[in-house]
Amino acid sequence: MEPRQGSEDMREIHHFVGGKSFAGTSKRRGPVMNPTTGEQQAEVMLANAADLDHVCAKAEEAARAWANTSVITRSRVMSKFQALLWQHKTELATMIAKEHGKVLADAEGDVVRGIEAVEFSCGIPHLIKGEYSDGVSTNVDMYSMRRPLGVVAGITPFNFPAMIPLWMMAVAVACGNAIIIKPSEKDPTCPVRLAELFMEAGGPEHIFNVMHGDRELVEAILAHPTIQAVSFVGSTPVARAVYAGATAHGKRAQCMGGAKNHLLVMPDADMDAATNALMGAAYGSAGERCMATPVAVAVGKGTAEALIERLQPRIEALRIGPSMDPDSDMGPLVTREHRDKVKSYFDMAVDEGSDLLIDGREFSLQGYENGYFIGACLFDNVKPGMTTYKEEIFGPSLQIVRADDFDQAAKLPSDHEYGNGTAIFTKDGRFARQFAQHVNVGMVGINVPIPVPLSFHTFGGWKASAFGGHNQHGMEGVRFYTRVKTITARWDDNFGDAQFIMPTHG
What we know:
This protein is an alpha/beta fold.
């Protein structure tokens, strides 16, 4: 649907720069849809390179002052920011539900996991400490410090409009940087509100900026000389391109891509617990999560049948409805185009020979026929060679792959192109330990279906799920948004004669 240019009654979503709304110079706009109704609800400004130049100049100046602000002061601002986020949790979640389509309870989870990253950043006085060695030589001391990079950028996806911007912003800002967040233009309202709350917490102007845009703005970010680092979360093809573009311009980059997460169900597993886990991990947020679990690996004879017997009635009973309805288990997908893409994958799975046990392709919600709804699907006898097994569907489906034994099952996530997350459900510690140690995947759950680490650890996959040497948040985030400076200091009355050899400690 084309945006309605110049509409007087259409809500406009501006950038947020320097502590206030910023319209920019670009005349381009994009539509913001309501996934539940299929109607346009707002227009979002789309920035150009000239807008970015303006923001970077202001952010660079602000970053210098912020970096020299007491680390205690920065910590206290983040603490006030955290308190405001808790106060406005429901407001933020409502914004997400209306623009993304995930149900309100799930949207609140999005906000809370973001708040946890801000909570972690409040400990920055400890996290950013360097090292000190006195007396490394006669009257010589050596110490290191972590210094912020300056201006950094975060490019965030549509599926977590609060959590992922806060993952990036919290650590970057606490470390003393200024950040420019470019959220998805599909659901841009929540990130703007986050920036407003940061200002209310006492944050300086031009430290937390939000700029809306599409590919034009992304390419400008990758090339801009002021921006020192880029953090990205999205699909693997775009993650790969962003990483290549950022590093080609000398920037530090962490780029998180797609996933195809497997959950192994061993014959000894608690089948009811595994069923509950798969229901939430496969169909929560309509499958629009990079840490969703769209593949269940049923290990051993009878395991698949036991799972299917439990799963079928649960899937058929899923309550699919408007995102703001508290009785809904699952809402619509984010856009009509994405809904159609997901449906095409479901069609392909049937064509490839998967057994379609539950068919949600033609689901339509009475009264919301124009919404971007699709029903949940369940596939059995999925084979590793199938395209729909190899590629990320990002919709409400579960594919069951059958494996004869543990070794065959464990090989599947290790051999897959993606390596974001995986899980195993078992009562046998030997299998669990072997799986956790040797599977070629970045995040592992043991009787935990979605192993997203808490903010004081770090988030990141392997293989085609991540590009760059640093993960999101935790101490990896602190290292990403700072660089080490090492000082060797000598205080002595006698500096001796000139030396023409490499100095060593004799």
